[in-house]
Amino acid sequence: MAKAYEKIADDLREQIRAGQYGPGDRLPSEADLIKSSGRSGPTVQQALRVLQAEGLIEKRHGIGTFVRRPRTPVLRDNARHQWEKERALAPEEQRLETGATEHDTGLEINDLVFHAAYRDIKAAKEVSEAMGVAEGTPLVERTYRTRYSVEREPFSLVTSYLIRSLVESNPDLLDETKEPWPGGTMNQLHTVGIEIDRIEERITARPPTSEEAEELGLPPGTAVLVLRKTQYDTKDRVVEMSDVTFPGDRTEMLFTTHLERW
Known about the structure:
Structural class: alpha+beta
CATH topology of the largest domain: Chorismate lyase
Order of helices and strands: HHHEEEHHHEHEEHHEHEEE
Shape: elongated
Largest sheet: 6 strands, antiparallel
CATH superfamily of the largest domain: Chorismate lyase-like
Number of strands: 10
Strand content: 25-35%
CATH architecture of the largest domain: 3-Layer(aba) Sandwich
Number of domains: 2
């Protein structure tokens, strides 16, 4: 037999799926649910926690509880890297038409809100070891946030590292106001004579930090996917490394491997 809170959760879930409450609609208050269900406050609160953990509803502090809007899904496949490399050599007019986020989401460039911030740092031990440079090496740390204009949360949290000595010959590569850069990092590196030869990506899953959960708008219990992307040039040097945190409730990773025939 279903417990009392499960019955309340089932009833609300059915109403949401039937369209009685649509995305963005406000649900009855806890006081109204207590009255209509004849159950206690803790029972109603437990029912709402169940639906929140499922990602069906969200609580807005001081406002109420709302049906959660489905978020734009992101499909990231490994074929994107060759697409990015070919795009890096395209004319600027063509590079301005679309970017990697549009490639992964199917959105148009005018649908997106983009933010970038640069700062000079010294390579800490963990980053220096990963990039194969001495600890304390000057780096350009770049953080990126891109979101759909009708949504509040970004698609991912991106921190990218460039070795300053490899890119400083082009001052534009040290200037965050030049972002979003048509053609992305591969074109940026191309302007200083660097060609990407291969890309390594390592993906793990873990619970989010409280800051990540808040910035990404994650329901309780939702994991994040953490990707470390390392780009090597034709001289086998690490020329860029990115740490990307993806929300587990909207991101799909697709890897297709073409095998040689016997």
